[in-house]
Fold each of these.
Amino acid sequence: MNSSFMKPLVVLAVPGLYLFYKYNQYRRQQQERQRRKVTEKELLALNQKIDKLLQKLEEHEPDMAGSKDEECVICINAKAQMQTYPCGHKVVCRKCFVKTIQMAVSQRCLPLRCVICRTRILKLKQSTIM
């Protein structure tokens, strides 16, 4: 092809590509803003549910630890009932664990991690009350 023919095409294509790039950038920003709005609403709803759960937990007397090994490492009062996996630590009571979740959600420090070894919590088990 003749180079004199290609020159106008290149001159037209470069601004077109730039406009296409800017349009896609704008669309991505809009989608991100929309995603954040939804996420903020979900986090607000989750915080409200956590507040209700904490109110219910406040109504009940915590199970007292029978020994130093059974006590919650956070409040040092109630019996540790929540066991985290894969690490297997059982060092936190229900109320303190819910407060930990609330703090992690409000500070956007997710996923949750074990308070002892900082391993990512993949599974949670509540021990039976005896």
Amino acid sequence: MVVEFELLLGSFARRVTLKVAKGEDIDALARRYLSGALRYRGREGINLIAIAVDYRKEEEDRLRKLNVTVRGTSGSNVQNHKDRRARFLASRLLEAWGIARSLRPLNRDEAKAMLPGLLKLFDLGDEVLTGLLIKELGLSVDELLGAQLISQKSRQPVTLADAEGDEVIEQEVSRSVPSRSTRDYTNYKIATGWLRETIAKRLSTELDFRDFRPLSERLSGLGTLMIGGQPVSVFLARDLMSFKSISALEMELSQRAQKSTGLILGASPEAPRYIGHNVVIPIGTVMEPGDPDLAIDLDRLRDRYESDRKASKHIVCAKVFEGGNNTGSFVMPDKPALPLTGRIQLDFFTKLADAYNAGFPEVHASILVEGTSASTPRAVFSGKMRKRVFDDYVERARDNGCWRLKG
């Protein structure tokens, strides 16, 4: 019998709790005093339920009492009961009633099927997402809750707008209007650490790694892979679209003093070809096409790594390697690869590289800024990216108004 429940009214500070004595009809009282709030928030707004259960053990006639409390979507007091049999009974009751789900990690087949969506979720890097966005990533809120990869936030935003002068027009609706459940607008907190470990374990199974180590929020070590007879350090990285994030990764990787070129597996299909001296390969590009198990093609991974490593190591001219969706890397002899984000940056260095390779390295400023809103080449970049570009890669030429690559 339910003897208490708590309903959130938009935030943790705005909530209402209804308690009844054993034997009273809590449902009738809720309809009487909280009907409006229940219609607005629905079942998703209930944050706590307390249930009183009477039971007897097989070997005795005495009636025992068991209090079970469920908070949020996955928290309960089941494990707080000292009696092992009481814990088991409470757990089975909650599962049978559908109040709480059996919490368990994803099995191998589930992790395989959900890997593309989990990679997108991981790459976003957001701590809180709505149920609607999770659904758009191709993931199930119920499955993520069951695997403890997300949890429902106790604080939920509510926005009410009332503008003066609003007019109400009543007429027949000529088309269907899509309906959304309250779950679509419910905020869920992402268990980032557990999500990263789940993805890493899935990849480790595919690639036979045994040495997963989280190194930072954006970078994890997966282990080593033999490629061309040499051990190659393999990493998992996310957020490879911003210069700030890429610069932080470069610094982390440079401090590791690797003897060989490392391999970075990107969670997103959008990534530069190189970060420092490391080859970047988006995970999705080395999956078996059309394979229902989404197995990683190890031969394709090795071939792609070897091809990109040799292209960078034996470079004899300036070149822009595009990585897809307006990302890429600029490479030239005796300089570390420069990650580029955006079509403007790619075009800027392509013009300089073409001139450099043709033997006439000077390019007029008007050509470099063509198609941009910048008035000077320096204005094409900003912040630390500007400093890095013009300190290490680009300089003003002798001819007035021209620029060239340093080299």
